[in-house]
Design the sequence.
């Protein structure tokens, strides 16, 4: 199977190179046969890399330690799920996953558009195959996942214990689906510039692809946050780690693109800006892959130093130079059809929204690369931690939340004083009432009060928009309020799905604010039968137990949790010791949203820090994280809203079909 997988990888590289050459030559000479051959080669690459990846997965499942990568990242005692996820547990396998996903995207795009936008497709597929070729060259010559061990190996080293968590089965693939997914909009942007077809055709085509990549990138980030929350045992979910930042940056620029592209569709504006955003997003996805695999940064997520750094740096620079050259070449044909007439307009709100996203992205980028630059230029690595990021990004995030509330209700072109009073009096009142109520309840954290007030402002603007739309629908269709609301959403799924996404993002912001501003912690050195207090909860240490399986030893502590005199839960924080790796890990226990009844107000987060069974002394640490469950619930709302937004607009499709039929009938008649 190793030979078969390696052979598929070599054949995939040959087919990818042929695809690029055939598509380029076929489009230059207008030879359909060459174009078709290049597209078939691209489809073949997807199939070959599927066989290649499945053969490596089979090697993991069957404990084939004759392959070095398998021996380094698995052993025979690992559960099967972690043998499969070991595919992306190391450097070579994660690169294979990257290019495998990209090849499937290229296959789908090629088949999906085999009869559509034929003027763009050779350049689109050629761009995707160029990226595939780069990654296959790395796998072939720099980081081969099928490299033989070279000696008899009875047992493998095993997967990093920190990666042996159920969310590591979904977090990396989700993140890669987003990371790699931005290559598709980038390929269409490059094709539009290469061919000179700079109308809105490419924008309309990539709408769902952009949402698809944005969705999976966001879900991957949330899953990574939850993995850090439950696995690393530090009470938090986001530490401004360089690899966390690397996933956040393309999400920010892609979010800006999804917003600004609506202005191009409706008003013919921001054409150059949108091209810059999609190029920047793809460059940031490659940058994230570079810093993860080059070893230039230190992170729990990153791999050790390797020879991949210069390859990725060179590829990244080449993308920037080629994209910039094409953009400059096409500038005369990217003239804006309209201009912003007033700073008090929906167009300007979208523009300020983009500026806020880019400002946050630049701040994250600078904080991520500054230690690297400092070490390269001065020989001293300067640490940039969470306080620095929070100092700059929190104010920008508050401004972004405010713009999110203003954008949907402000008028196009120019807002009048009457429009502003009509649309923002109630939301402003909701914000003031929220701030006053929280202050009366004892909240004194000023940034938190402002954040909660702005969240109330945004939710009020969305509720007002839905109410007015449903009322109008009631009058025109003579239906009840709920029917009117359902009809309103059904007729414009993209718009109201977007509002639902905004609700989810507000919920996430509420969770971040509450858990960051009001977190409490306690450390207790106690014996059996003793207890300690944190906030309204009292935790009584009952006993410990131990267990063993072929893979690890487990020490579990039992804590009864009381709120007042009422017992509300029993928690079992644990310590694992993985025998093959001789490495301990801490497994937390949480009283929160996954208990029944769910506790959505706060998470009681407990850790068994140290144990001395002989002396009977144990050390526990506990955190009280208010509202943190709202982050994960907000993620579910974002999932729902995105799915609503990408549903087909059947009414519009039928109207477009009728218009097309009418045009064809007029053509026949004339």
Sequence:
């Amino acid at each position: 199977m190793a030979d078969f997988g390696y052979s598929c990888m070599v054949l995939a590289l040959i087919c990818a190179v042929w695809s690029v050459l055939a598509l380029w030559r076929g489009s230059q000479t207008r030879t359909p046969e060459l174009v078709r051959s290049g597209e078939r080669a691209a489809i073949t690459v997807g199939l070959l890399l599927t066989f290649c990846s499945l053969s490596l997965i089979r090697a993991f499942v069957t404990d084939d330690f004759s392959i070095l990568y398998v021996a380094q990242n698995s052993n025979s005692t690992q559960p099967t799920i972690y043998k499969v996820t070991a595919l992306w547990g190391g450097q070579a396998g994660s690169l294979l996953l990257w290019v495998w996903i990209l090849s499937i995207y290229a296959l789908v795009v090629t088949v999906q558009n085999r009869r559509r936008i034929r003027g763009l497709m050779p350049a689109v597929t050629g761009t995707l195959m160029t990226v595939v070729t780069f990654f296959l060259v790395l796998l072939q010559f720099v980081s081969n996942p099928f490299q033989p061990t070279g000696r008899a190996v009875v047992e493998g080293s095993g997967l990093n214990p920190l990666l042996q968590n159920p969310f590591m089965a979904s977090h990396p693939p989700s993140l890669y689906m987003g990371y790699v997914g931005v290559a598709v909009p980038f390929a269409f942007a490059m094709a539009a510039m290469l061919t000179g077809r700079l109308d809105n055709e490419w924008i309309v085509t990539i709408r769902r692809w952009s949402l698809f990549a944005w969705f999976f990138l966001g879900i991957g980030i949330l899953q990574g946050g939850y993995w850090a929350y439950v696995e690393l045992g530090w009470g938090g979910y986001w530490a401004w780690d360089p690899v966390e930042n690397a996933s956040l940056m393309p999400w920010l620029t892609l979010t800006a693109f999804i917003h600004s592209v609506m202005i191009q569709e409706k008003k013919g504006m921001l054409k150059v800006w949108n091209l810059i955003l999609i190029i920047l997003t793809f460059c940031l996805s490659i940058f994230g892959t570079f810093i993860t695999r080059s070893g230039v940064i230190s992170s729990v997520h990153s791999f050790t130093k390797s020879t991949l750094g210069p390859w990725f740096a060179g590829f990244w620079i080449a993308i920037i130079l080629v994209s910039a050259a094409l953009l400059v070449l096409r500038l005369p044909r990217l003239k804006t059809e309209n201009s912003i007439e007033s700073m008090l307009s929906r167009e300007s709100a979208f523009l300020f929204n983009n500026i806020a996203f880019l400002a946050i992205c630049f701040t994250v980028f600078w904080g991520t690369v500054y230690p690297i630059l400092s070490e390269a230029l001065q020989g001293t690595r300067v640490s940039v931690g969470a306080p620095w990021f929070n100092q700059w990004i929190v104010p920008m995030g508050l401004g972004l939340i405010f713009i999110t509330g203003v954008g949907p209700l402000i008028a196009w072109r120019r807002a009048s004083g009457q429009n502003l009073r009509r649309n923002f009096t109630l939301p402003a009142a909701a914000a003031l009432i929220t701030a006053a109520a929280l202050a009366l309840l004892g909240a004194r954290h000023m940034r938190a009060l402002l954040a909660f007030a702005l969240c109330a402002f945004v939710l009020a603007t969305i509720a007002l928009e839905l109410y007015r739309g449903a009322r109008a629908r009631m009058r025109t269709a003579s239906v009840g309020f709920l029917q009117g609301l359902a009809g309103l959403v059904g007729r414009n799924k993209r718009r109201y799905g977007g509002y639902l996404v905004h609700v989810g993002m507000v919920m996430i912001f509420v969770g971040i604010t509450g858990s960051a501003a009001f977190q409490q912690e306690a450390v207790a050195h106690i014996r059996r039968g003793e207890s300690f207090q944190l906030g309204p909860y009292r935790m009584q240490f009952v006993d410990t137990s131990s267990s063993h399986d072929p893979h690890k030893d487990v020490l579990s502590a039992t804590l009864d949790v009381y709120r007042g005199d009422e017992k509300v839960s029993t928690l079992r924080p644990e310590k694992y010791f993985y025998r093959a790796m001789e490495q301990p890990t801490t497994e937390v226990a949480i009283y929160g949203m996954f208990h029944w009844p769910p506790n959505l107000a706060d998470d009681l987060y407990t850790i068994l820090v140290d144990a001395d069974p002989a002396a009977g002394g144990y050390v526990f640490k506990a955190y009280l994280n208010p509202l943190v469950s709202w982050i994960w619930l907000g993620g579910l709302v974002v999932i729902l809203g995105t799915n609503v937004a990408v549903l087909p607009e059947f009414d519009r499709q039928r109207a477009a079909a009728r218009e097309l039929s009418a045009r064809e009938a007029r053509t026949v008649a004339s």
